[in-house]
Amino acid sequence: MQSRLYSPGYASPARWILFEPSVRKAFSAIGKDVVPDVISVLAQASGGAARDMVVAAHPHVTSGHLDSLVRAHILLDSPPPDPAEASSFTVSFHQANVDYPFFDYGSPEVAENESKLLDRYASLWPPPPAVLERKGPRYALPACDADLGLIPEADDGLTLGVLAWILKLVLAPIDEIKTRHVTCVRRTTPSGGARHPTELSVVMHAPLAEVPAGTYTYDISSHSLVAEPFPVHESYAARLGQRDIGFVIRSRVDRAMWRYRDLRALRPLLIDSGHVTELVAYLLGRLAMHAEVISAPAAPGRPSWLHEPEVVMVRASRLPTSHDQPTSLFHPPSQAHSRGESGAFLTNPAMVLRFTPALSAGVVWPVSARVALSLDDFLILNYCLPSTRGDRDQTMPGIVKAVPGADRSTIERLAACGALLPVAEAAPLYDDLRLWVRHEWYLAFLTYAEALERGAASPVVSRVPGATGYLTDVAALFRRHTSRVFAPEPVSLTSVEILLGRVVPGDWWPGLEISIAAWNVEGLAPGLYRWRDGHLTQCGEIPPRELVAAHCAGQTATSSGALTIWLSALSDPGHPGQYLMDLVDLGRLGQRICMAATELGVATFLSPAVYDRPACSMLSIGQAERRITYVFGLGSPASSQSASIKSVVTE
User: Fold this and answer.
1) Would you call 546 helix, strand, or coil by DSSP?
2) Per-block average pLDDT, block size 10, for the chain (651 residues)?
3) Which of 126, 272, 298, 367 is most buried as measured by Cβ atoms within 10 A of its Cβ?
4) What b/e string do you get for 276-285 counting C-beta neighbours within 10 Å, with b at 16 or more?
5) Topology alike, domains 128-317 and 474-646
């Protein structure tokens, strides 16, 4: 992949970086206007070439060099892997996330180390605000402060007042957490580090009171709806289908990026979206509306689209609606070569080079494509990388003149598959990507873009069926806190069974394992249990609390309460749209646990920071390499919640 996108601060003559996901290591492919030896070696070896053939074809490469590539896991001294294993970039991303080396929250110096880390981030650029003031035409929403804890009468239908109630209950701050760098907010949903990146846009086919049909984004600061441009509404409305109203879940990614700058940070971002998604679906259900969670529509024409990209859509109607297959008005450019010789090209920043089963371009956005490459093709892509000096003629005649072996038909073929993009399309994408690149989220962008593109082409529906019975009192949302300290009193078995029965009443998610370590549950012997078919079944001895915390990046709050619950879903990263939805669905179930536990008087801590193989081994769960896990520590509330609130952000 492009070195400037993978690591913008890395000073090197290399234009390309080799990334091996199994070991999470990156290596420079040295060479500017040539094919680096390592690229040529990998291209030949990916077809299964013998060692002596590779050495004979490369005068400067020895058998010792090949040994070093084997030790670095860049080369395999064995037959090439099955091409199906590299069917998507998301496969590589997920592989790099398995047993990810998290920040050690169990070390004695954790608070000091994290504080220093955030100080360094703050010295580079200030943190983004917790609440954004949006610009554009707006419509004020009715005030609803006094009624936030009350459910409107379902017979009233969806009025503007009801919409105002949903938006404020889901997104408005209910408290503040002041830190040295930023004032964070509390909402009715939990969020990692109290960053709350998730935002909402509303899609309406018909007017609602004085608000015309259209798409509007909720402005928290003014409690109003801000109109989106018509092309955005077109794309969103197409995904809405026959439903009455839709809520597009978007993520203000820089809030999470500023604090969490590592490969795995995309996963909690999507889980965070799932919490908000579930609350929206729950409130719609309480209003007797039928809600469905589906892959997000794509509207990349929005200004600074990647600053707040779409994640999923919740679409709803008063009457049950068949699962109509939504359409999309977004047609990604795929005929870039028709622009003529006068247009210039840039290498697509959403393209990576793959070496399984041969050298190829893996394009993830704006179209999904996989096309075999020759070394001459590589030189064209290399030449069309953005130039900081602007001294390259990247028009078709310029490319043909500058790159040996280049011709018009080859350039057209690379443009047709999306490996090359017209400058008018590539330049805005590079600009939008700067936010992700400077926070070292480029691999996350590729995964997100691939999932969005696949979900736009073949929409995925959430696995989690709609339900409202797990929470009867909406006012309980305001009592929810993320707790890191628990009282020593036990939690009753009745409370545990009611909670699990409300949250996961059936086995509707194939491959989802729900494990419970019960240390202090009154009426239940200490042990490891599974929740299946509405019952707890013991499956092992109780694991040590220290071991549970160690497998959760040292977070003692996961194991210091009365019990720990693991939601471990079997996912398939070879289907990126489903993979994204599965992470959102984990967040949906997490929100149900938080809501049900609060109403039952049980305190909750939650975290997606899990070492996959050790945790699955401890829980006797198979296929750890394909699992995504969310862990919850539950217990009796501490006498004072103030310590828990302040500890949400350890700055």
Assistant:
1) helix
2) 86 86 90 90 88 91 92 81 72 94 85 88 89 94 89 84 96 89 89 93 96 97 96 95 96 94 92 98 95 94 93 91 56 42 86 89 94 95 89 93 94 96 95 94 96 92 95 93 94 97 90 97 97 94 97 95 98 95 98 97 96 97 96 91 38 33
3) 272
4) bbbbbbbbbb
5) yes
Residue type for position 202: V
- Sign of the CA dihedral 7, 131, 594, 531? negative
CB proximity list for 502: less than 8 A, separation 6 or greater: 467, 469, 470, 471, 592, 596
Distances from the Cα of 518 to the Cα of 408, 462, 481, 570, 631, angstroms: 67, 30, 22, 23, 14
Whether the CB-CB separation of 321 and 290 falls below 8 Å is answered with yes
Residue type, 26: A
- Terminal Cα-to-Cα distance of the chain (whole angstroms): 35
Half-sphere exposure in the Cβ direction for 74 (13 Å, CA): 20
- Residues listed for the chain: 651
The token duo for 148 is 């936030």
Report how far residue 142's alpha carbon sits from residue 137's, in angstroms, rounded to the nearest whole number. 17
pTM: 0.94
Which DSSP symbol is given to 128?
A: P
Phi then psi for 454, rounded to 5 degrees?
-65, -40
* Residues in Cβ contact with 52 at an 8 Å cutoff, skipping those fewer than 6 apart: none
Q: Which CATH class is domain 128-317?
A: alpha beta
Domain 474-646, CATH class in plain words: alpha beta
Q: Which two tokens stand for residue 35?
A: 């094919």
| Residue among 563, 595, 564 nearest 491 (CA) | 563
Q: Which residues, in sequence order, are bridge partners of residue 224? A: 140, 219
CA distance 353 to 276: 36
Within 10 angstroms of residue 391's Cβ, the number of other Cβ atoms is: 6
Residue spans of the domains in the chain: they are: 128-317, 336-457, 474-646
Using CB atoms within 10 Å of the CB of residue 133, give its burial: 0 to 12 exposed, 13 to 18 middle, 19+ buried.
exposed
Strand partners, 210: none
